[in-house]
Amino acid sequence: MLDVHDHRSLGQRLDLFHLQEEAPGMVFWHPRGHLLYRLIEERVRKQMRLEGYEEVRTPQLLAQPIWERSGHWENFRENMFEFAEEGGRHLALKPVNCPGHIQLVQRMGPSYRDLPLRLGEFGLVHRSEPSGSLHGLFRLRQFTQDDGHIFCAEEQMREEVLRFCRSLRAFYADFGFEDVEVAFSSRPAQRAGSDEVWDVAESLLLEAARQAGLHCRMQPGQGAFYGPKLEFVLKDRPGRDWQCGTIQLDLVLPERFDLHYVDASGQKRRPMMLHRAMLGSLERFIAILLEHHAGALPAWLSPEQVVVASIGEGAAGYAERFAAKLREAGCRAHADARAESLSRKIVDAHQSGVPWLVVAGAREMEKNVVRLRRRDGEQRDLAWDEALAELVAECRPSPSM
C-alpha cells in the first residue's frame, strides 16, 4: 500500500498518470496530467525565449559511430538501448541530446557573430535502467529532459554561466521552492579528456560560480564523464534534497567532434560547450512537485483551477454562465451541475486538487453574487465582477512568468 503522500498515490487521486507492467519505466499521462506537464513545459519554454534559446528537435535513433565519437559507447553503453539494423549496423536510442545538438552546430558552421549559440530541446530520452531501480516518476526508462546547450567563445563562457545562475532562484520560487543549494561536481574516475583539459574546465567553472556569488558544496568525482558541473539542489517541505538544475562546462565533446567557429580574422577556433537544464527530467520534477505540495498545487499549475458548483434546481444555468466567464478570462473552470449535495461537491473538488470552489445556488442568484470557497475552507460572498477579478488574479501565473 502506497503512502497517501507518495507521488504515485497523488497521481492516482488527482487522475494525472499511471504506470503499468506492459511499459516498465514509462508513463501513461492522463488528460489532466498531460495538461500539468504542458504547463511546466511552457514555463520552461518561456524562460528559454527570454534567454535567447532556439528550440530544436533531434532524432531518437543515432548510429554507433556518433556514440563512439561522443564517448557514450565507451562510458555509458550499459545504460543505452541498442538495436541492430539490416546489415548489422548498430544504432541506439538516445540517452542524451548532446550529440544531436552537435550535429546541428556542425551543419550551421557558425562564425563568431553567431556566438553564443543557444539550442534548447524537450528531448525524449531512453536509458536502460535495471528493473529493480525503477521508482515511479523518480526513476524511469523513458523521460523528457529540458535540455539546452550553449556554444560560445572562451571569453563569453563566464557570462553565460552567470546568466543561467541568476535566473534560477526566481524560476524555482514560481514552483514553491525557496531553499536552493549548489554543489560543484569534479572529475570522475571514468572520464574522457586529459587531466590538463579537466584542470582548465574545473578552474573556469569554479571561478564563474564564485563570480555568481555561489557557495558550493564540493562533490569530488561526481562530474559527468566529459566535464565538471554545478548542481542546484532544492529542499522540499519534508526536508529532502533534490538535485534538479545543472550547468556543465564541456571542453571534451567539441574536440572529439572537431567543432569550430570562424573568428574575426578568419581563423578556426574551438568553441566551449555548456550543457544546462533547469529541471533535469520533467517527469521527476512533477514527482518532486506533487510531494512538495502534497497534491495541493499552486493555482497557476492546477490542471483544474475553479469548480462552479450549482446548488438546487434552476441554478445550473447561473453556474455555467459564471464558469463560461472564467474560461473567457483564461481560467481553467467548469460547472458541476450534478444532482449531488454541496458537501459531496466540496469533497470531490478537494480530492481533485482544485484550489477554488464557487457556490452558485438560489440565494446567490437572488443577490447576484457567488460564494468563493478556498481550498483551506475560507469562504465569502462577492458580486460577480469582484469574484471574477479575484479568481482571474489568483489563477494567473506570477509577474515573473
Summarize this structure briefly:
It is an enzyme of class 6 (ligase). Its EC number is 6.1.1.3. The chain is built from 13 helices and 20 strands.
Question: In words, what does this structure look like?
Answer:
The radius of gyration is 25 Å and the shape is elongated. The chain is 36% helix and 25% strand. Helix 6 packs across helix 7. It is built from 13 helices and 20 strands. The two termini are 38 Å apart. The chain has two domains: 7-292, BirA Bifunctional Protein, domain 2; 299-395, Rossmann fold (3-Layer(aba) Sandwich). The strands form five sheets. It has an eight-stranded mixed sheet with strand order 3-7-8-15-12-11-9-10, sandwiched between helices. The protein has a five-stranded mixed sheet with strand order 17-16-18-19-20, with helices on both faces. The protein has a three-stranded antiparallel sheet with strand order 4-6-5. It is of the alpha+beta class.
Mean pLDDT: 93
Share in β-strands: 25-35%
Portion in helices: 25-40%
The geometry reads as: elongated
Enzyme class: ligase
GO molecular function, one term: ATP binding
Protein name: Threonine--tRNA ligase
GO cellular component, one term: cytoplasm
Write the layout of secondary structure elements.
Layout: H1 7-13, E1 17-18, E2 28-29, H2 31-50, E3 54-55, E4 61-63, H3 64-70, H4 72-75, E5 82-84, E6 90-93, H5 98-108, E7 117-126, E8 142-152, H6 154-174, E9 180-185, H7 195-211, E10 216-219, E11 229-235, E12 241-250, H8 253-256, E13 261-262, E14 268-269, E15 272-277, H9 282-292, E16 306-311, H10 316-328, E17 333-336, H11 342-351, E18 356-361, H12 362-367, E19 369-374, E20 379-383, H13 384-395
Parallel strand pairs: 3-7, 9-10, 16-17, 16-18
Antiparallel strand pairs: 1-2, 4-6, 5-6, 7-8, 8-15, 9-11, 11-12, 12-15, 13-14, 18-19, 19-20
Helix pairs in contact: 1-9, 6-7
